[in-house]
Amino acid sequence: MASLSAATATAAAAATRLLPSAYTSAASLSYRPSVSLGSLRSSPLLSRIFLPQNSARRLSTGRIGYSTASPPKCAASDPEQLKSAREDIKELLKTKFCHPIMVRLGWHDAGTYNKNIEEWPQRGGANGSLRFEIELKHGANAGLVNALKLLQPIRDKYSNVTYADLFQLASATAIEVDPFFWTSGSEAGGPKIPMKYGRVDVSGPEQCPEEGRLPDAGPPSPASHLRDVFYRMGLNDKEIVALSGAHTLGRSRPDRSGWGKPETKYTKDGPGAPGGQSWTAQWLKFDNSYFKDIKERRDEDLLVLPTDAVLFEDPSFKEYSEKYAADQDAFFKDYAEAHAKLSNLGAKFDPAEGFSLDDIPSKGQPEKFVAAKYSTGKRELSDAMKQKIRAEYEGFGGSPDKPLQSNYFLNIMIVVAVLALLSSLIVN
Questions:
Q1: Which residues carry out catalysis?
Q2: Where are the transmembrane segments (predicted)?
Q3: What is the mean pLDDT of residues 193-204?
């Protein structure tokens, strides 16, 4: 028994040396390698040392602590997929110039929130309900089906991203990214929005909010109407004015909203589909020109709705509008905070605290093949063994100049071999 214990300890120590330090705990043995054990079993190198069938069965049942079960997934979005989806959204914005409609999509999914209703999803808000036809047909959502069509291929590609997160991600990205960043050399457009993600989707159209929760463009009493709608969401006068500043992006089309001219000198040639009337001359650039143009009212080709004009007529609204017209940095700061708050309204998060994409490290370069790193202790692998390991590596599509996304399968191979040795010692 003493020699058996010594052999066992030696084998276990060898396994520890062969694994990266981050994977030497007991929990690490439940990590699922990128290559299945089934494919490793057919490996020429392992075929000589793989476990007997009864030992393999013991492995699969977890009796010695190894499991091939998939790690549990949360009910909401996968952070890595969401981060990749953001890059696809940037490409979409770059080719389709759809910044305004993406902002509107996120806003209209979140803007149905009612702070006086506690239950989810009855309270409305950012829950992905806008993907259903019954809500898309609400009068205030005219044209948003086009935004959904643009995003659906991205959602199909990243199936572990919720619609609720995708809508808000697209809205924030549209604010942050300069529509001409590929020529300007900078992605800096509007302010960076302090977003968090993890929103849960509603499951069916029966969970959509009733029509009438979104603001109108031309109500009889614009100031009272804006306060009725936005106060119901839990927002204040400063946030109402700051969010109104997003009208610096986009155009109003009379065939959709009933407001605006069919085209102007600023919109007749696009970019994107021509037509409509914009609030600003550079209607794809996020800045504070919306407040400047409303204040001056000098250009008949620029749109001013009753809910825009009231921002310089109501005393409380005017205080902030004057500030933003004079100070773009102040506008950017207040807008970013208001946008983030709006995007969270009514949402149910999983995990409960949400997560930030900024906290997810970028994937580093895959590690290259270095056979010597699989040596045990002070003993260098023989050239013959290095060649065998390299053959295994190349058998999975890798080479010294073409690293695989993960080399951990090699570590798993070695652990399995050690476990096989332990198994044989115990049996004998």
A1: 108
A2: 408-427
A3: 97
